[in-house]
Structure formats: C-alpha cells, structure tokens
Write a structure and sequence with these properties.
The complex is a heterodimer of chains A (319) and B (205).
Chain A lengths: L7 H33 L5 H5 L14 H4 L2 H16 L4 H17 L4 H25 L8 E4 L2 E7 H25 L4 H10 L4 H30 L8 H31 L16 H30 L4
Antiparallel strand pairs in A: 1-2
Chain B lengths: L9 H21 L5 H15 L2 E4 L2 E4 L3 H8 L3 H16 L7 H22 L4 H28 L6 H32 L14
Antiparallel strand pairs in B: 1-2
Classes of the chains: A mainly alpha (319), B mainly alpha (205).
C-alpha cells in the first residue's frame, strides 16, 4: 500500500497564505474602524494621531462559563495554558489549542470586534515575521526552497514560512485567550485574584490606579490636542511638529505631575495607608476546580502530544 | 517594536521573567514606598503619551519614550515601564502575555541607562542638558533594539535575519526619540525644572 504523498510545501504555503490574508484583513478592518471613529468623534481625526483607548471589562455583564468561573482559577489555568502553547513545536497539538482558544472565545461571548482588534494589533509584527523569515532563514539539509521565475536572487525558504506561521498561530491562540481571561469580570476583581495568586499587592494597586488614570489623561490629551488644532497646529513630518509635540508632551507631564500630587494628597485625606479596602471575596466551588482541571489537562495533553507524539506514532501499528 | 507570544524559546521567556522580577524588586526598593501611587499616576501619563503618533514621511510611528521615562523617574523607571507594558499588553495585545518579561527587560534597562546618562549631565549648561537628554534617549532606544536583537537571536540562527532587520527598523526611531526628548527637556527646563531632578527618588534609597 503506497501512502498518498501530499507535498508539504502546498500545505505550508496555503496555511501561510491564509494566516497572512486573515491578518491583512483584520488590520485593514481595524484601520477602517479607526478612521470611521475619527470622523464621528468631535475632535476630528485625533483618534488617528492619539490612538484609541479600549476599555477592558465592557462585556462583564454578559453571562457565560467564564463569567461564573472563580477568577483565581481562571487566571492561573489560562496562564499555564498560554505558557504551554508558546512552548509547542508541532502543528497538531498547536491546532488543537487553537481550536480550544477559539471555542473559549466563543463561549465567553467575546464580541467579534474586540477579538479582531486584538488580532489586528499583532498583525504588523506577525506580518513582518511572515515576510522576513522565508527570505532570511538559512538553508538546511531537507529544506524546501521556492524559486520565483525571473527572480533568481530571491529564494524563499519554506521552513522559514512555516516557522513564522507557527509563531503567528501561537500568538493568535494567546490573543484569543486574553478576552475570556480579562473581560469576563471587573478589572478590580481580576487584580484582587492576581494578588491572591502571589503577585505583590503594590503592583496590583499600581495597575488599578493606572487603569483609572489612563482614561483621565487620555481625556486631558484630547482637550490639549483640540486646543493645539484650534491654534493652527497640524501634525506633519518636520521639525515644527517635533517641537510642538515635545512641548505638548512636556506640558502633559507638568500637568500630570501636578495632578499626581493632588491625587496623592486626596488619597491621604481619605485615610489611605498603603492598601485599598476591598470587598472582593472568592469562593471556590467544585465546578471551578473541574474547569481548571479541564484546561490544565488540555494543556498537558497538547504538551505530551508535542514532545512524545513521534514516539506514539512509531509505536502504533498503522503508520 | 514589542515581541509577541511564541517568538522566544520558552526557557528564555521564563528566564527573562525572573530577571525582570529582580529588576522590579530593585526598582521598587529604590523608590520611596509612599511614592509608588504617584509613579502609577505618572505612568498613566507616559502611557497616554506613548500613544501619540509622530508622522514620519508617509507613515507614522508611536513613541516608545524609554529615555523620557528614565529622565523623569530615575530608579523608578523600571517599575513604571514594566507596568506600562503590562497595561499595554492587557489593553491592546501589543506585546504578548508570555513575552512580558522579555519586553520589560528590553525597555526597562534602557530607561535606567537613560536615567544614568541624564543624571550625569544634570546641572550643567542648558545646551549640555538638552544634548544630554537627546543622547540619553537615543542611547536608550538603541540599547532597546540591541536587547531585542539579542533576545531574538536566542531562538537560533533562523532568527538572526529578523534580529538584524529589527535593529535597522529602529534607526529612524532613535532619531525621532532623541529629538522629542530634547524638546521635552528644554520645555521642562523652562517651565518646571524640578521635574528633571527625578523627584521620585533617584537619590533616595
């Protein structure tokens, strides 16, 4: 019985092409959305120059398995899962994890817009890898090369494309996990859970303060930007823009430093002694343990398949 | 440029988390405990500032600001940069969850380097200070690109090409960051010079 040989190069090319197309589409979608947003918002086009700022816990009111899962177990198991995913070397366990992550994303009722924004954010870096790696990866014995007619200098190494596609897939898996991980409970609860898992309290508090003041400063920056625009500033490449932006940032730092002082004094007035009072209480039920066991088992199976999959294949009679 | 998930070998990703943890501990220890909430609020300002896009020919680049953060926060710069990167990863997916340790090293160590350079020129003539800020910022971004290249190169010779291209891609950013830092520092010298003394504990232990 002769096995049917499918050329690996076709599969690899197809996968790379699909990944590239998906990333380009998402990037383009993100760009279009940003433009549209810029027209709708009052200070026109400032979202373009200042960058949009998404909120983390918008979909916390929805209900799903992930919303009901104890945040401590959710964070610990999903982070273990992510670390296992990034250490995989072979496609079958990786695709298994991709399926799981996509399933998790769907189960957590992640809005498509938010998932695509996360994927779009990575598209630049991953596209760079997908384009650069086939060209720069050195030739090894057994590599498949792709020659383009009429371009004898440019040889594409398919192993490089496969490597880049594998990295991109890992990044996509972790990105898909992020929304179920973060936006299924309020950010303060996530941080309380992270603290229970052993991260120093002071870092969690800093993150909580930052998550609040990022939006305050974002608002401030928008107002300053409108003021600059009204006074005739236009963002172009050139010396004047750099000088104006330098002063703009300097002013932002002066204002934020003054605000920092006021915030700190207000915190002291209200009795801040180094810790925020918290009402978050965690209660582990058997269901939480079961879900954690499910994710860690899945990660373990993927890892075993990855490391010892070839052994199983060699042992099995049909090969 | 921030590393995404899955690029680094797992041992390197985990190891850089350990080194980042040590640097964080040092940074927090060198910061006056009462000042940490202030650093957090300042970090939000740096975060928003880094979202500003500087037009560059047909495209635009967003600011990295390791130099400016180092100049303004001294020893606290590492914790500031790291927390900024955490928030960035959580909000935007710029920089992967498992690559946070590596990204923290890549931006945090240069911030300390910039703080050291600027501390050296602080108190000299205006021109020296502004030039020092530009040098500090340029050195920070250059160092960041070299650390990035080094981290990429741990993946084996397959990644050498990408590492080289990453360094080259940072060259225009080096120039822009240097110019912006010079303007920021010359503005702050005139408007609020005490900000440049890294009031959040460059000298205090």
């Amino acid at each position: 019985m002769t096995p049917i040989v499918v050329p690996w190069s076709w599969i690899v090319l197809g996968l790379g092409g699909v990944a590239g197309t998906v990333l380009i589409t998402l990037g383009a979608l993100g760009l279009r959305r940003r433009k549209r947003h810029g027209i709708e918002s009052v200070p026109a086009a400032d979202a373009e120059a200042l960058g949009a700022l998404p909120e983390l816990d918008l979909s916390e009111t929805a209900s799903s398995v992930f919303h009901r899962w104890d945040p401590r177990f959710k964070i610990a198991s999903l982070i273990i899962f992510s670390f296992v995913v990034v250490s995989l070397h072979f496609w079958p366990p990786l695709l298994l994890c991709l399926g799981l992550a996509a399933g998790a994303s769907a189960a957590a009722r992640t809005p498509l817009r938010r998932a695509s924004r996360r994927l779009g954010a990575m598209s630049g870096f991953l596209l760079m890898l997908l384009i650069v790696m086939p060209v720069t990866v050195p030739f090894h014995e057994g590599d498949r090369l792709l020659l383009i007619d009429g371009l004898p200098i440019l040889t594409l190494n398919l192993r490089g494309l496969e490597l880049a596609a594998r990295i991109a897939t890992k990044a996509v898996v972790v990105a898909l996990i992020m929304e179920p991980l973060l936006s299924t409970c309020p950010f303060s609860v996530t941080l309380a859970a992270v603290h229970r898992l052993g991260v120093p309290l002071v870092l969690c508090q800093m993150l909580l303060l930052m998550y609040r003041y990022v939006f305050v400063f974002r608002h401030e920056v928008q107002r300053m930007w409108v003021g600059m625009t009204v006074r005739g500033f236009r963002s172009r490449s050139g010396w004047e823009t750099m000088a104006s932006l330098g002063s703009f940032l300097g002013m932002l730092f002066v204002r934020s430093m003054e605000r920092t002082q006021r915030v700190h004094e207000a915190m002291l007035c209200r009795g801040y002694t180094g810790a925020f009072p918290t009402t978050v209480r965690f209660d582990a039920a058997p269901r939480d343990w079961a879900w954690a066991a499910f994710w860690i088992t899945a990660a373990g199976v993927a890892f075993i398949l990855d490391r010892w999959g070839s052994v199983f294949r060699a042992l099995s009679p049909i090969s | 440029m921030h590393l995404s998930d899955g690029v680094l070998p797992t041992a390197v990703a985990v190891g850089s988390f350990a080194v980042t943890g040590l640097c964080l501990a040092l940074s927090v220890k060198k910061t006056n405990g009462d000042d940490l909430p202030k650093i957090a609020v300042m970090t939000s300002a740096f975060f928003v500032a880094s979202l500003v896009h500087v037009p560059l020919g047909p495209t635009s680049v967003h600011l990295l600001l390791p130099g400016v953060v180092g100049i303004l926060t001294g020893w606290s710069a590492f914790v500031s940069i790291f927390m900024g990167l955490v928030l960035q990863s959580l909000l935007f997916q710029f920089g992967g969850l498992t690559a946070l340790g590596a990204n923290g090293l890549m931006m945090g160590l240069p911030a300390w380097c910039a703080a050291g350079i600027f501390h050296y020129v602080r108190g000299r003539s205006a021109a020296m200070e502004v030039a020092g800020a530009a040098c500090a910022s340029a050195a920070a971004v250059a160092l960041a690109s070299l650390i990035l290249a080094g981290l990429l190169a741990t993946g084996g010779e397959d990644f050498f090409g990408v590492a080289k291209i990453a360094v080259i891609a940072h060259l225009p950013v080096v120039v822009i960051e240097a110019v912006i830092a010079a303007f920021v520092v010359s503005f702050l010298r005139r408007v609020k010079p005490e900000l440049l003394d890294a009031p959040m504990g460059w000298r205090s232990v």
